[in-house]
Amino acid sequence: MVHRVLRKMSVLVRDATPDDVHAIAEIHVASWRNTYKGIVPQVFLDSMDVDERAQRWTRSFDKTTCKLIVAQVDTVIVGWCYFGVCRDTDVDRNTAELWAIYIHPRSINRGIGHALWASATDSLMAQGYIRSVVWVVKENERAIRFYSKNGFVADGNEKTITIDDATLQELRMTALLKA
Prior knowledge:
This protein has 5 helices and 8 strands. It is an alpha+beta fold.
């Protein structure tokens, strides 16, 4: 559990608990609808269901080897970060992966993402990781700026993903972990 004071606001970053899954799902859906509007088919965004996402998180909560943390302002969860073992086979075992980081659209640009990533970095370094990768949709310019500010650089690897009827390009960014 880490308290950080950001722009006159106190943020608590802590491990997620099963009681947090509904808030995590709400942020996931709201963030996707905000970030991917015009990138991912609207029918897909409209079909995203908070209760279904919460059920997924509940089912996988104790089965994952990755770590899930949340950022809380007062009593409200405003963001979350999921990180751990890297899925890519072309990296060494000292490389972790930032699987996802989402901030509620009302809390963007308040330092929440930086607080979450700082806490994730501390955790990853304590586990012996020295670098991390993240995959990001090329059209997600806000995320690319965020990752760049946090030391990530595109490493030349790309992949194609399909979401509903949309074919999107993702680029992989890599960062050395620093305390």
